[in-house]
């Protein structure tokens, strides 16, 4: 991540959302694809954004909201800067994934499925990230940490705060 | 990525591409294949690749060595892995430093670096050649024929391995009825789990009237512990494109969709690239290779819902709707995507199709047993020494999979169970290790072949807790459309939670069985109908464990936390304070004069203290 982020005003972000929806609609994309694109741009899908999707696509708000709430990839809460996913696939479960969840809930003082108070991490349980031969596995953003145990976690978490400090300098 | 794209107008140009590739690669002394499967990526194969590229340039090997990044080679637990040809020399647990040594001594010096190859723990000797390693020896790679051996990003290499020749043979020689006959004769059945004969399915699509038909690849591999389909998409995306072309041609569809789950971004990228390259070469689009057949493909990405692996829910999801299953009939071949006749096949099923067409049904049916022909790909994982992606001929015994291929149980613990088929499947015991792995034999003992997840569990696994785990999964993933699944799985989960928390009563087991059978009989879709399977099989084969939880309030495997107490034996304790210093919740106190003890109210039963105690002074009661 770069050191400076340009935070555009909400109006500009909303306008960008509208453009994205129109472009995808032109291509004949489905509502799910539109929502993926909107979430990528806006970060999450609060009801105000869902309303815009509804206006632009002509689908009722209840239809849009029905799809958003059905799929676990769509989030109505803002994400953390980093997204931690503890794998709870069968292999990871059998090899001790639960201990990692308990430990991390304690360490981050945040229940699974929520974002930490400082906005640094969103911490979720993943169904299976497919790193079964490296169980138990944890992914943070796109990086997968193999064969994790509770002793590794404080170091891994600290490394993200260290990077943050470096950036802020 | 292809070096230059040209639109192929006729079949002879495919042959020409094959020849060009073979001539071009014949001049290399070595081919180095670096596994780029997701497992190896997680163990940092990228660093190994960087070191390889740098060192091979330094040593001036550009003309002599070909470097390939392949899909999953299979032995994921020993990643990053690197294969050097000729000789099939298999390097494991690679690091950039080891890679530099291999370049200098093997590629330049011609000396195999045996100490970096696979170590046979029993003999204490290294086994350099892949073909001699027990993990690989008994495997038969048909669906995985290219996975881990070719560059997933090279259409030329795919073509050099007779790629797209299945499509050519289908359109020029067999024709539509011929493809159906060939598939029927091969005995290929759906590898997603249901085992429906593929030839019969395609025939129903072929016979269905309609101007617009679709063929769909189901790559919504949702079972936890399963990643076979992902490995195929990442390692051999062109085989899926070719299979869908053959399918489209056979049933009369000019459009196909691949529905990939959102959790697989690498698979999506590689497949998307392959589709674009195939389009550039005219293998997708109008009038393919002058056959008069036109066909194109699109990827649809899921959004995280297990139920979308159910074919009718998947169709709703492609249409952009909530992924709730549809009532059958009408079946998808009658009224599927956008109300049009649609044939849906799983990734692994499709991966078999092109090679069945090129090599013939008889060759394929030569593998396997009785009504289960060919091979099956499994993701072998859990408490097993060697885990990864394997492909075995149907009929192999479970014991050979666990002990020969998988190398047995980790840490010398005892085997307890193997779970096949994920949340829809069942658990098998050591008494079933000699079962033949085929559709019929597995069904007979209450398990299923499933899509291919095989999780091996050791003696420290609680089967009641495992059943609870799967029930938690399905009740969370239940779409809520029908009552038996929505409410029934919730009630079953509550019963299981009651049992694992130490409050179970004998009547709970009876109620759970009644409820399980009711859900099985009345749920609307496959997800609901199979949801009780993990509970039913564990009740059948591990009833004594349920009874111990219910009657004695004990978890024999020491897993269910509410029934455990950690205690420090003051006589064995040397007061070293390691346990107290490592306890994540400061539940342990004591000192030089006072013996250490655990505050049971604070203790979260994480086991950290046991793993740190050097004197075996802490135990579970």
What's the structural blueprint in terms of helices and strands?
The complex is a heterodimer of chains A (169) and B (621).
Chain A: H1 10-26, H2 31-42, H3 47-57, H4 61-70, E1 82-87, H5 90-94, H6 97-108, E2 114-115, E3 121-126, E4 138-140, E5 143-145, H7 153-168
Helix pairs in contact in A: 1-2, 1-3, 3-4
Chain B: H1 11-26, E1 30-35, H2 38-42, H3 45-58, E2 65-70, E3 82-85, E4 89-91, H4 96-108, E5 118-120, E6 125-127, H5 134-137, H6 155-160, H7 165-186, H8 198-207, E7 214-219, H9 228-235, H10 237-251, E8 255-260, H11 265-280, E9 296-301, H12 311-318, E10 342-346, H13 347-359, H14 361-365, E11 368-369, E12 372-373, E13 375-382, E14 388-393, H15 398-405, E15 415-420, E16 426-428, H16 439-444, E17 453-458, H17 463-477, H18 483-500, H19 506-522, H20 526-530, H21 533-541, H22 543-552, E18 566-568, H23 578-582, E19 588-589, E20 597-598, H24 608-612, E21 618-620
Parallel strand pairs in B: 1-2, 7-8, 7-10, 8-9, 13-17
Antiparallel strand pairs in B: 1-3, 3-4, 5-6, 11-12, 13-14, 15-16, 15-17, 18-21, 19-20
What does this structure look like?
The complex is a heterodimer of chains A (169) and B (621). Chain A contains 7 helices and 5 strands. Chain A has 169 residues and is of the alpha+beta class. In chain A, strands 2-3-1-4-5 form a 5-stranded mixed beta sheet, covered by helices on one side. In chain A, β2 and β3 (121-126) form a beta hairpin. In chain A, α1 (10-26) packs antiparallel against α2 and α1 (10-26) runs parallel beside α3 (47-57). Chain A is elongated. Chain A starts with 9 loop residues before the first helix and ends with a helix. Residues 1-7 of chain A have low confidence and may be disordered. In chain B, a hairpin with a 4-residue loop joins β5 and β6 (125-127). In chain B, α7 packs across α8 and α7 packs across α10. In chain B, the strands form 7 sheets. In chain B, strands 14-13-17-15-16 form a 5-stranded mixed beta sheet, with helices on both faces. Chain B has a 4-stranded mixed beta sheet with strand order 2-1-3-4, with helices on one face. A 4-stranded parallel beta sheet of chain B has the order 9-8-7-10, sandwiched between helices. The termini of chain B are far apart. By secondary structure, chain B is α/β, with parallel strands linked by helices. Chain B is built from 24 helices and 21 strands. At the A-B interface, α2, α4, α5 and α6 of A face α2, β13, β17 and α17 of B.
């Amino acid at each position: 991540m770069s050191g400076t982020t340009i935070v555009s005003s909400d109006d500009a972000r909303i306008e960008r959302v509208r453009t994205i929806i129109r472009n995808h609609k032109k291509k004949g994309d489905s509502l799910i694809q539109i929502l993926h694109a909107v979430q990528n741009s806006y970060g999450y899908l609060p009801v105000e954004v869902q309303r815009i999707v509804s206006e632009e696509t002509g689908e009722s708000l209840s239809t849009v909201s029905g799809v958003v709430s059905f799929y676990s990839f769509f989030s109505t809460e803002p994400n953390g800067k980093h997204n931690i996913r503890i794998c709870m696939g069968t292999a990871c479960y059998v090899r001790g994934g639960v201990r990692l969840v308990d430990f991390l809930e304690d360490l981050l003082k945040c229940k699974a499925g929520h974002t930490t108070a400082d906005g640094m991490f969103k911490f979720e349980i993943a169904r299976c990230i497919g790193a079964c031969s490296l169980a138990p596995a944890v992914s943070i953003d796109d990086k997968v940490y193999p064969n994790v145990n509770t002793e590794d976690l404080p170091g891994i978490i600290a490394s993200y705060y260290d990077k943050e400090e470096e950036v802020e300098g | 990525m292809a070096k230059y794209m040209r639109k192929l107008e006729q079949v002879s140009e495919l042959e020409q591409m094959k020849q060009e590739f073979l001539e071009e690669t014949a001049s290399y002394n070595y081919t180095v294949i670096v596994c780029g499967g997701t497992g190896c990526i997680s163990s940092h194969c990228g660093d190994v690749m960087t070191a390889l590229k740098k060192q091979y340039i330094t040593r001036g090997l550009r003309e002599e060595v070909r470097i390939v990044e392949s899909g999953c080679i299979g032995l994921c637990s020993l990643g990053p892995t690197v294969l050097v040809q000729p000789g099939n020399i298999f390097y494991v647990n690679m690091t950039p430093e080891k890679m530099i040594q291999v370049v200098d001594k093997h590629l330049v010096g011609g000396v195999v670096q045996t100490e970096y190859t696979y170590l046979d723990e029993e003999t204490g000797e290294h086994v350099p050649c892949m073909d001699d390693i027990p993990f690989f020896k008994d495997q038969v790679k048909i669906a995985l024929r290219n996975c881990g051996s070719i560059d997933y990003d090279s259409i030329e290499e795919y073509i050099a391995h007779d790629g797209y020749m299945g499509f050519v043979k289908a359109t020029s020689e067999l024709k539509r009825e011929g493809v159906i006959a060939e598939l029927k004769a091969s005995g290929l059945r759906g590898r997603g789990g249901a085992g429906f004969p593929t030839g019969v399915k395609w025939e129903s699509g072929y016979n269905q009237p309609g101007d617009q038909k679709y063929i769909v690849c189901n790559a919504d591999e949702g079972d936890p512990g399963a990643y076979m389909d992902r490995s195929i998409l990442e390692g051999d995306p062109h085989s899926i494109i070719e299979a869908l072309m053959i399918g489209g041609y056979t049933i009369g569809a000019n459009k196909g969709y691949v529905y990939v789950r959102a959790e697989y971004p690498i698979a999506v990228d590689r497949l998307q690239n392959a589709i674009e390259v195939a389009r550039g070469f005219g293998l997708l689009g109008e009038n393919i290779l002058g056959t008069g057949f036109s066909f194109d493909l699109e990827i649809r990405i899921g959004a995280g819902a297990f139920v979308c692996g159910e074919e009718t829910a998947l169709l709703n999801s492609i249409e952009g709707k909530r992924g709730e299953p549809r009532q059958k009939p009408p079946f998808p071949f009658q009224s599927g995507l956008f109300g049009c006749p649609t044939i849906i096949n799983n990734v692994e099923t499709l991966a078999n199709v092109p090679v069945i067409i090129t090599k013939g049904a008889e060759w394929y049916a030569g593998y396997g047993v009785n009504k289960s022909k060919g091979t099956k790909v499994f993701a072998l994982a859990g408490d097993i020494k060697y885990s990864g992606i394997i492909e075995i001929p149907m009929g192999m015994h479970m014991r050979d999979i666990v002990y020969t291929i998988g190398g047995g149980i980790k840490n010398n613990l005892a085997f307890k169970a193997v779970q096949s088929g994920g949340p829809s499947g069942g658990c098998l015991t050591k008494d079933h290790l000699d079962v033949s792995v085929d559709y019929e034999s597995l069904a007979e003992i209450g398990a299923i072949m499933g899509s291919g997840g095989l999780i091996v569990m050791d003696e420290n696994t609680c089967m009641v807790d495992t059943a609870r785990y799967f029930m938690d999964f399905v009740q969370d993933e239940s779409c809520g459309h029908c009552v038996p699944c929505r409410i029934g799985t919730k009630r079953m989960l509550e019963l299981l939670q009651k049992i694992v928390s130490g409050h179970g009563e004998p009547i709970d087991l009876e109620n759970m069985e009644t409820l399980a059978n009711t859900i099985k009989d009345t749920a609307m879709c496959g997800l609901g109908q199979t949801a009780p399977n993990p509970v039913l099989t564990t009740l059948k084969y591990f009833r004594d464990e349920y009874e111990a939880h219910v009657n004695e309030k004990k978890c024999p495997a020491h897993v269910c936390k509410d029934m455990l107490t950690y205690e420090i034996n003051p006589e064995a304790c040397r007061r070293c304070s390691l346990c107290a210093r490592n306890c994540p919740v400061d539940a342990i106190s004591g000192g030089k004069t006072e013996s250490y003890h655990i505050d049971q109210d604070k203790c979260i039963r994480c086991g950290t203290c046991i793993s740190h105690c050097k004197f075996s002074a802490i135990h579970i009661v």
